[in-house]
Specification:
The protein is mainly alpha-helical. It is 60% helix and 0% strand. The protein has helices at residues 14-22, 24-37, 41-50, 54-65. The mean pLDDT is 81.
Length: 75
């Protein structure tokens, strides 16, 4: 499946991405994998360490509003 530019969770559709973001474990894993795939190693590690709490809630809200996860750190 080809990745759509600017969309998260491997270019999946918006509804599927929102469903995946609802579950904390999948949002945590997919958020970290997405950041690693972008080449953002530090951001991926931070998502692994802190992605299960407030980052999950922010990702859920942003996924519903814009279809993208939070990008706080672009390192």
């Amino acid at each position: 499946m080809a990745k759509k530019k600017g969309k998260d969770y491997f270019g999946l559709g918006r509804v599927v991405s929102i469903i995946l973001a609802i579950f904390p474990v999948t949002a945590w894993i997919l958020g970290a994998v997405t950041r690693f795939m972008e080449g953002k190693i530090v951001a991926g590690l931070i998502r692994i360490i802190f992605g299960f709490n407030i980052v999950w809630l922010i990702d859920l809200v942003l996924m519903i509003i814009s279809g993208k996860i939070m990008r706080l750190l672009n390192v």
